[in-house]
Structures are given as C-alpha cells and as structure tokens.
Amino acid sequence: MTESPLMQKALRVLEFTKIREQLASYALTEAGAALCHQLLPFDNLQDARYAQAETEEALMLLTYRGDNPLQRFQDIRPSLGRALKGATLSPRALLDVADCLRATSIAKAALDGEEEKRPILSGLSTVLTTNYPLERRLKDSIISEDEIADNASPALADIRRQLRLHNDRVKEKLRAFTQGSAAKYLQESIVTVRNGRYVIPVRQEYRQFVPGLVHDQSSSGATLFIEPMSVVELGNELKQWTLKEEQEIERILGELSDQIAGQAPLIKSNVEILIQLDYIFAKGTLARAMGAISPRMNDVGQIRFVRVRHPLIDRASVVPCDLWLGED
C-alpha cells in the first residue's frame, strides 16, 4: 500500500507515525530502523497475518532467550560494491565486513532449528551463509582501523622485525649524542621525530658543531631538529623498510578486498536478511515492551476489542476499553 496524502493524514491522526518511531528505536541498525519507518497498514489479510506471525515468532524467541539474538552490524553493501569494482577497502571497511560475517554466524546459530515453532525465522536462517575462514582471516589480520597485525602475512612479520631492529640502532646512535659530550649543544636531551626521521633538538648557535641534515626548526628558529650524519644512512635504511611495510600493508588490504569481492553476492544476501531480521526483532521487542498480543484478524469488517489499551498512554494510568463494531 502506498502512502497517499489521505493515508498520510490518517496515519498522523491515528498517531501511527509515533508508533513507527517507537518501533525504529528498537532496531539495532540504521537500515533496520529505515524499514521500521516505512511500515504501513496492510491492504490484505494474508500479508497482515504473515507480518503478525513474524512478530509473534520474534516475541517467542525474545521471551525464551531474554535478549536479542542479533548483534550490531553496519550496512556494508556500498563497500561490497567498491570491492566488486576492484577497489581496495580500508581497514575500517574490512572490519565492518568481519563484523557482518560474525553477525551472520551468531544469527544463524540462534535461529537454526525448531522449524515447527518458528517457520519464518528458521526459513530466513537457512538462507544465511556463514564464512568462518574469511571472518577469521579478517579478524586475525586487522587489529583496528589504524593497525594491521604482524601476522597478517609472513612478509609483514619479517618487515616489522627489521623495522624494530633498525629503530633500535638509530635510537642507540642518537642516545650517544644526548648522553655524550655533544649533549651541551642540545636544547633538550631527547630524541624526537620530524618528517618521519629521528632527530635531536640542537640550539641554533651550535649548528656547526653537529653536522647533519636539518629536518625542521622551532617556531622561534632557536632550535633546529637535526639528523646527525652518523645516523643518516641508518635512517635511510629505516625509511626503506617503512616503505616496504606500507607496500605490504597495501598488498594485504588488496588481497582481502579481492577475497571479499569473490564472496560479495552471498555477503550482500546475508546483509539484506540480517536487516530484515533486525526489523522483525524490533517488532518483537516493541510487542514485549507494550505487553501486546497477536490479534485474531478477519476481513469481514468486524472488530471486537476486549480491554484494549492505547499504546501511547502510560500503562499505569491508561484505562482499558471494550469496543465492538460491525457485527450488527
């Protein structure tokens, strides 16, 4: 049923829009909430009964478990589209894919079985496709959106060993300056980083006593940040290993993106089912919060409400009402 101007007015008068807002507040995802906001009255009995059956199954499972069997996930369909076009996904996007795969595994485990009691939810769970190897590979490779794990590849682990070794060598050389006879030329006896190079802060007036490359200076110009000549070569090697690390990380991200692209249709299907499940469990959660029951519906224009309560009035003060219409 489309939302015509007359329908929009009726929904406002009935405050159905407020019920939709309540429903959306129970969704775990933005996409699930969007489905809640799109909910309209049904124009045939079969669809209405099916929607009620969805809610009743969700309420039954929520009552049995005590919590929502879904976990939060992002709508990763845009990322899947980029991967299919050959783009390399960011670590954040790859983590979102991993979370979605995890949400799929959790939902499938919670909803599988008991087809007789929960035919709709069980039917949706059978369409979900888990991918534990890819889920594990993503989680093992990416620590956060800013950090790739050492064991993401053997090459990366070796590169980072070399980086640590060269870092230690450079710092050891520079400590000789900060703790030796040259310390008197320094603004402070510290080692810092400028433009990706390890440097020491040298007073401007002592520049000639510390040969090396100037990478930066203080705002006043009184301090120069110098990479001593004795560590320049080590610094160059360190820079080369840093570039190798960046290249290997980019290769790993590209490889993971390619693996996701190969599974994109199945993952996209999972996302769409999870969004539908989010909407269904939002309905079940709202029903539980309201203390609502599933009505017996008919299509002959007869209504019998027994001690029905207005859902937007506080339950402690609402007055239950009986209402019979259409029988005579």
Q: Radius of gyration over alpha carbons?
A: 31 Å
- Spans where pLDDT lies below 50 across 5 or more residues: none
DSSP strand content: 5-15%
**Total strand segments:** 8
Shape: elongated
Mean pLDDT: 90
- Roughly how many Å apart are the termini? 29 Å
| Secondary-structure-derived class | alpha+beta
Task: Give a short account of the largest sheet.
Answer: 4 strands, antiparallel
Strand order of the largest sheet: 3-4-6-5
Q: Which range best describes the helical content: under 10%, 10-25%, 25-40%, 40-55%, 55-70% or over 70%?
A: 55-70%
**Number of discrete helical segments:** 11
Structure description:
Helix content is 56%, strand content 12%. With 328 residues, it is α+β, with helices and mostly antiparallel strands. Helix 9 (154-179) packs antiparallel against helix 10 (229-262). The mean pLDDT is 90. The chain has a 4-stranded antiparallel sheet.
Summarize the structure.
56% of the residues lie in helices and 12% in strands.
Question: Features of this protein?
Answer:
328 residues, alpha+beta, four-stranded antiparallel beta sheet, two-stranded antiparallel ribbon, 56% helix
Task: List strands and helices in order, with pairings.
Layout: H1 5-13, H2 16-25, H3 30-37, H4 45-65, H5 77-84, H6 91-111, H7 119-127, H8 132-141, E1 142-144, E2 147-148, H9 154-179, E3 192-194, E4 197-203, E5 212-217, E6 223-228, H10 229-262, H11 264-290, E7 303-308, E8 321-325
Antiparallel strand pairs: 1-2, 3-4, 4-6, 5-6, 7-8
